[in-house]
Amino acid sequence: MTEHLVDASVTEWEDGIDLVLDTQVALPPTQVWPYVTRSELLENWFVGYQSDSGDADILLELDDQPVPAHVLSVSAPEDDTDVAHVLLEVDGIGRLGLTLAPLPDAAGASGTRITLAHTIADRGIDHDILAQAIAQVGPVWETHLRLLAGTLTDSPGAYDVPESQMTTRYEALAEEIG
């Protein structure tokens, strides 16, 4: 069951090619939002960051090194029916977007679809380079989304899958785009 926790696809648009991953959790967007915006909660599944209050420039803490990022857009959920997002331009990584969309079910409970999009290449890039990027970053982002799901459900490690399985999955996805 946990091997299907995260869906992955590649999407081409006017500014580039995105690797898109998404998962679902049984919490409303307002409860997920702090885990994608508050540094002390974000570092439980990704990395922490530093910022000056109100400043659009932040420093992510990647491998104990500060990495500059610029907040391009942010929209917090005001209630559990709102779609929320954060869009960053990260030095050396590219554009990252994280979207939270409400998923009400028939019983009236709500959940959230969490979608991470990473612009990994410009349009027209050589296929071999694109395939290599997908195979390299796909398992990393999937691991982070799995960590987030585990953090949100208070079940760390419950969503783990072998690294080799993820590597095989993203190598196959890279082959599909050929």
Question: What do you see in this structure?
Answer:
- The protein is an alpha+beta fold and 178 residues long.
- Helices cover 30% and strands 38% of the residues.
- It has an eight-stranded antiparallel sheet.
- Strand 6 and strand 7 form a beta hairpin.
- Helix 3 crosses helix 4.
List keywords for this structure.
4 helices; alpha+beta; 178 residues; 8 strands; eight-stranded antiparallel beta sheet; globular
List the helices and strands and how they pair.
Elements (H helix, E strand, L loop, with lengths): L6 E7 L2 E10 L3 H9 L1 H4 L6 E3 L5 E6 L2 E11 L8 E7 L3 E11 L5 E12 L5 H26 L10 H14 L2
Antiparallel strand pairs: 1-2, 2-8, 3-4, 4-5, 5-6, 6-7, 7-8
Helix pairs in contact: 3-4
Summary, kept brief:
The chain has 178 residues and is an alpha+beta fold. It is 30% helix and 38% strand. The chain has helices spanning 29-37, 39-42, 127-152, 163-176, and strands at 7-13, 16-25, 49-51, 57-62, 65-75, 84-90, 94-104, 110-121.
Portion of residues in helices?
Answer: 25-40%
N to C succession of SSEs: EEHHEEEEEEHH
Q: What's the number of helices?
A: 4
Strand order within the widest beta sheet: 1-2-8-7-6-5-4-3
Coarse shape: globular
Distance between the termini: 28 Å
Low-confidence stretches: none
How does the major sheet shape up? 8 strands, antiparallel
Structural class: alpha+beta
What's the mean pLDDT score? 87
**Number of E-type strands:** 8
Q: How much beta, percentage-wise?
A: 35-45%
Radius of gyration (CA) equals: 16 Å
